[in-house]
């Protein structure tokens, strides 16, 4: 684990993210320059984090977390994700006659 000087989160997004990280990673406090994976994060926790972020109205992509894993970097990406819109489709029901 790399040791960095602690710098408190700044702004609503960083503060919310820090709380999510602390809860998920079971650490006391998370600073702006803390690295998700150095704090004990891994791929399954990354997916869980992204889902918790969505529930907190903080849209981000899991790829951002892997490419830019510090709190400040993830916070900067919030809201810049293009949401994939999947059109709703209707699947026709088959009318099959039962054969005996």
Automatic annotation (TrEMBL):
GO terms for molecular function: phosphopantetheine binding. Its cofactor is pantetheine 4'-phosphate. The keyword Phosphoprotein applies. GO terms for biological process: amino acid activation for nonribosomal peptide biosynthetic process; secondary metabolite biosynthetic process. PROSITE patterns: CARRIER. Keywords: Phosphopantetheine, Phosphoprotein. Residues 8-82 form the Carrier domain. GO terms for cellular component: cytoplasm. The keyword Transport does not apply. InterPro entries: ACP-like_sf, PP-bd_ACP. This is Carrier domain-containing protein. It comes from Pseudomonas syringae pv. solidagae.
